[in-house]
């Protein structure tokens, strides 16, 4: 692994600006600057400016958005664009989160377009891949995540592809309290690493952080993070409480 662990908080539809300010005050008091890891917050789009402002003194912590639209601009009421995300200070964009795919019907074609727009805007995409329980039970996990990865990289050149972040998030583990075992996570991460390797070569593939996400909490974070090929954590529910999140980032 040639990079620092990436520990990312996905706040989903939680924490408006007022809550976010209180969260940051409490969190920053117990989270001194850490040079050995990269922290990322994904607040709701409405809360991004508050979080960027609250982290002015902490350039070591990145802020991202949870989604962008698959077109650059136009008549798409309610959506946010890549350039708007960059304008408010986001550095990272989540793409293909399981809730986008399974609640909002995001397709592989849409993730292909989003990944290209994000890289053109020189932001970092964090592509989420993961199988449903049904796909897992059918033995299709590897083929599902490889298909999702291939779609995500389809319109990127090799240097753009080498600059992405990847998150393996089994759908059955998200928000369910059911976590993949460290061995399961390592096995799928190595499938993803091999797929990246055949596209980019081994050296570039080793530089792509592959995060695990799915019911990570302060009790299991350290074990998952120390599993082979796990380069970081993407955390939903357990990132909402400042004390719980501070304890996870210290894992
Ligand atoms: C997520 O939303 O990316 C996630 C992993 O959620 P949770 O940690 O709540 O399972």
Automatic annotation (TrEMBL):
Alphabetical UniProt keywords: Cytoplasm, Gluconeogenesis, Glycolysis, Isomerase
Catalytic residues (positions): 97, 169
Record-linked Gene3D superfamilies: Aldolase class I
Catalytic activity as recorded in UniProt: D-glyceraldehyde 3-phosphate = dihydroxyacetone phosphate
InterPro entries to which the protein is assigned, alphabetical: Aldolase_TIM (IPR013785), TIM_sf (IPR035990), TrioseP_Isoase_bac/euk (IPR022896), Triosephosphate_isomerase (IPR000652), Triosephosphate_isomerase_AS (IPR020861)
One cellular component (GO) term of this entry: cytosol
Subcellular location per the Swiss-Prot or TrEMBL entry: Cytoplasm
UniProt keyword annotation of Cytoplasm present: yes
Database matches in NCBIfam families: tim
Description of how the protein assembles with itself and partners: Homodimer.
Biological role stated in the UniProt entry: Involved in the gluconeogenesis. Catalyzes stereospecifically the conversion of dihydroxyacetone phosphate (DHAP) to D-glyceraldehyde-3-phosphate (G3P).
Protein name, as recorded: Triosephosphate isomerase
């Amino acid at each position: 692994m040639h990079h620092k662990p990436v520990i990312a908080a996905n706040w989903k539809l939680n924490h408006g600006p007022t809550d976010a300010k209180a969260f940051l005050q409490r969190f920053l008091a117990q989270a001194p600057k850490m040079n050995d890891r990269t922290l990322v917050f994904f607040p709701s789009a409405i809360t991004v400016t508050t979080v960027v402002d609250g982290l002015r003194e902490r350039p070591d912590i990145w802020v991202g958005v949870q989604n962008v639209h698959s077109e650059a601009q136009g008549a798409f009421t309610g959506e946010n664009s890549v350039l708007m995300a960059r304008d408010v200070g986001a550095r990272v964009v989540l793409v293909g989160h399981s809730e986008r795919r399974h609640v909002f019907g995001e397709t592989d074609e849409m993730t292909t377009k989003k990944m290209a727009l994000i890289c053109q805007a020189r932001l970092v995409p964090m592509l989420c891949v993961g199988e449903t329980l049904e796909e897992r039970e059918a033995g299709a996990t590897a083929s599902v995540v490889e298909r999702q990865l291939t779609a995500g990289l389809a319109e990127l050149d090799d240097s753009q592809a080498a600059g992405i972040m990847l998150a393996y998030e089994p759908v059955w583990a998200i928000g369910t309290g059911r976590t993949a075992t460290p061995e399961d996570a390592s096995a799928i991460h190595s499938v993803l690493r091999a797929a990246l390797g055949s596209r980019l070569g081994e050296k570039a593939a080793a530089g792509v952080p592959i995060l695990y996400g799915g019911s990570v909490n302060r009790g299991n974070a350290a074990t998952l993070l120390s599993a082979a090929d796990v380069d970081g954590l993407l955390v939903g529910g357990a990132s909402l409480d400042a004390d719980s999140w501070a304890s996870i980032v210290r894992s």
